[in-house]
């Protein structure tokens, strides 16, 4: 077998990656393409520098060449598939002179062992001006490999595809080709605000818009206190760390307690969810105005829950004057969950409980703007402005693991001597409560501190487990041994040997 070619131009300690742009970027005008390439280069620099990967990078005929130290090869290979705007990439095995002898000799030394006993093909491409015939390279190189190894040539379904890119500066040989994230480089499109609950849908919707190049800030309408805020922030942090390279996202936390109280006081129960979403849109619009964002993103999918029927979406939509982008509108839940697992947010989203403090017994599935607006007449519009003004803004890139640490809040069983506290809204408590349970809601905390002694263990429950976690956290801060029953009412009733409840 011929020895390894002496003309390999890559320094011994360097790994060179060939990066290809998303195919749709190549279809754009030269000016736009250049602009996108430049943004992609900047984003890559930010990601690699953040991860401590020394590198050099340059453009080459619509592609990019990235050199990193060999020791950083695996790390770089892990990072690249999560960079938006990259169509695919390859690790270059060798760079040789543009002579038939150098090319075929490198092919044999690099790939003879890999193709022995397999089906293979050689695919040569010319990048830039013609320096050597690609057909000859395929024919002669392929023939040599075949004769030497006895492997079978299969142009349609090769098990090993030897790629040869012939350029002015030398010939690159590689086999590896990894799919990139596709989409457009982060930041090439306008700025949006994404309404996030931390659930599967809003995280996937945010990812989809980031993938299309949007710059993004996140807005949480906080219905459930500090523990919920930390969970949602954690989901956002994971999303941005994995996929947000090059972006400087911020997380806006808007306290919704005063708005919830206003809804409960003025709106008909069956419209609570619809008005809640309308207020979320208005708050998002307020944040968007402050940060000069041009659209709102949500995770709504047609018909998924009662507030997402077509009629209700129309009613909700009317609350916003900015465009509302709903990338999941036509997706099935199953596909959304698959994407959530792929993007890495699912493990957090599955622990973000749904808020249960404003769940109507019979939510409306058909509404009109007029009817819902009628119920909102007595509500105070200044509350929206105040909530936007007083919001907390967190720079996501600076959030650390310590910021996300949650106190131990959850109980999975009922200790024998524990007292139960039901923290559902009064009408739900009246519908059913555990025998002997005390009843306090978030609004009753002051009274609770006066009336309930600190000795002993308290287990709190509510419909889904969100409010109880909020209250348990408050009580823990006051020195109580208080825990939220994980899984809410359904789990508690199972533990008590009862059936699930009809609401
Ligand atoms: N507390 C919240 N703060 C900000 N946005 C929210 C909040 N709750 C819901 N949203 C927005 O409204 C959309 C629809 O929420 P809804 O709870 O009706 O449906 P969902 O399918 O459970 O959504 P998700 O899985 O994102 O929680 C969410 O995808 C999100 O964009």
From TrEMBL:
The active site is at 462 (cysteine persulfide intermediate). Its main location: cytoplasm. PROSITE patterns: RHODANESE_3, THUMP. It catalyses: [ThiS sulfur-carrier protein]-C-terminal Gly-Gly-AMP + S-sulfanyl-L-cysteinyl-[cysteine desulfurase] + AH2 = [ThiS sulfur-carrier protein]-C-terminal-Gly-aminoethanethioate + L-cysteinyl-[cysteine desulfurase] + A + AMP + 2 H(+); [ThiI sulfur-carrier protein]-S-sulfanyl-L-cysteine + a uridine in tRNA + 2 reduced [2Fe-2S]-[ferredoxin] + ATP + H(+) = [ThiI sulfur-carrier protein]-L-cysteine + a 4-thiouridine in tRNA + 2 oxidized [2Fe-2S]-[ferredoxin] + AMP + diphosphate. Signal peptide: none annotated. The keyword Transferase applies. One of its GO terms (molecular function) is ATP binding. It is an enzyme of class 2 (transferase). Residues 414-501 form the Rhodanese domain. ATP binds at residues 195-196, 277, 299, 308. SMART domains: RHOD, THUMP. Pathway: Cofactor biosynthesis; thiamine diphosphate biosynthesis. Residues 74-177 form the THUMP domain. Its EC number is 2.8.1.4. One of its GO terms (biological process) is tRNA 4-thiouridine biosynthesis. It is found in: Cytoplasm. It holds the Pfam family Rhodanese. InterPro entries: Rhodanese-like_dom, Rhodanese-like_dom_sf, Rossmann-like_a/b/a_fold, ThiI_AANH, ThiI_fer, ThiI_N, THUMP_dom, THUMP_ThiI. GO terms for cellular component: cytosol. Keywords: ATP-binding, Cytoplasm, Disulfide bond, Nucleotide-binding, Redox-active center, RNA-binding, Thiamine biosynthesis, Transferase, tRNA-binding. Catalyzes the ATP-dependent transfer of a sulfur to tRNA to produce 4-thiouridine in position 8 of tRNAs, which functions as a near-UV photosensor. Also catalyzes the transfer of sulfur to the sulfur carrier protein ThiS, forming ThiS-thiocarboxylate. This is a step in the synthesis of thiazole, in the thiamine biosynthesis pathway. The sulfur is donated as persulfide by IscS. Belongs to the ThiI family. NCBIfam families: tRNA uracil 4-sulfurtransferase ThiI. This is tRNA sulfurtransferase. The lineage of its organism: Bacteria, Pseudomonadati, Pseudomonadota, Alphaproteobacteria, Rhodospirillales.
């Amino acid at each position: 077998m011929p020895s390894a070619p002496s003309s390999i131009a890559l320094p011994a300690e360097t790994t060179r990656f060939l990066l290809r742009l998303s195919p749709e970027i190549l279809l754009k005008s030269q000016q736009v393409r250049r602009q996108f390439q430049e943004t992609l280069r900047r984003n890559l620099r930010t990601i690699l520098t953040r991860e401590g990967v020394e590198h050099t990078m340059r453009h080459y005929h619509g592609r990019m060449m990235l050199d990193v130290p060999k020791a950083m090869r695996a790390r770089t290979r892990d990072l690249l598939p999560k960079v938006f705007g990259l169509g695919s990439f390859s690790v270059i095995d060798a760079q040789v002179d543009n002579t038939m002898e150098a090319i075929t000799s490198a092919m044999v030394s690099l790939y003879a062992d890999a193709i022995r006993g397999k089906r293979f093909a050689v695919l040569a491409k010319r990048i830039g001006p013609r320096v050597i015939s690609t057909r000859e390279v395929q024919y002669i190189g392929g023939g040599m490999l075949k004769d030497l190894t006895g492997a079978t040539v299969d142009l349609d379904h090769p098990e090993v595809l030897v790629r040869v890119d012939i350029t002015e500066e030398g010939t690159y040989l590689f086999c590896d080709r990894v799919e990139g994230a596709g989409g457009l480089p982060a930041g090439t499109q306008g700025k949006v605000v994404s309404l996030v609950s931390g659930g599967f849908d809003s995280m996937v919707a945010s990812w989809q818009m980031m993938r299309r190049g949007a710059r993004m800030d996140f807005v949480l309408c906080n219905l459930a206190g500090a523990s919920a805020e930390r969970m949602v922030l954690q989901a956002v942090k994971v999303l941005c760390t994995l996929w947000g390279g090059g972006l400087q996202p911020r997380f806006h936390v808007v306290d919704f307690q005063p708005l919830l109280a206003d809804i409960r006081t003025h709106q008909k129960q069956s419209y609570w969810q619809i008005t809640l979403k309308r207020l979320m849109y208005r708050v998002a619009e307020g944040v968007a105005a402050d940060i000069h964002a041009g659209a709102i993103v949500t995770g709504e999918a047609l018909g998924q829950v009662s507030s997402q029927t077509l009629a209700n979406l129309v009613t909700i939509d009317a609350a916003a004057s900015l465009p509302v982008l709903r990338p999941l509108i036509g997706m099935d839940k199953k596909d959304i969950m698959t994407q959530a697992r792929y993007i890495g947010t699912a493990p957090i989203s599955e622990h973000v409980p749904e808020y249960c403090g404003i769940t109507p017994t019979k939510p409306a599935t058909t509404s009109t703007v007029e009817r819902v607006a009628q119920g909102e007449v007595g509500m105070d519009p200044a509350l929206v402005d105040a909530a936007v003004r007083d919001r907390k803004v967190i720079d996501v890139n600076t959030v650390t693991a310590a910021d996300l640490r949650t106190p131990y809040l959850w109980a999975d069983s009922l200790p024998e001597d524990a007292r139960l506290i039901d923290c559902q809204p009064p009408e739900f408590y009246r519908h059913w409560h555990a025998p002997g349970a005390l009843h306090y809601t978030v609004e009753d905390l002051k009274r609770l501190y006066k009336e309930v002694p600190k000795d002993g263990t308290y287990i709190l429950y509510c419909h889904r487990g969100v409010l109880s976690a909020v209250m348990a956290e408050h009580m823990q801060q006051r020195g109580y041994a208080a825990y939220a029953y994980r899984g809410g009412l359904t789990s508690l009733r199972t533990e008590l040997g009862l059936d699930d409840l009809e609401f």
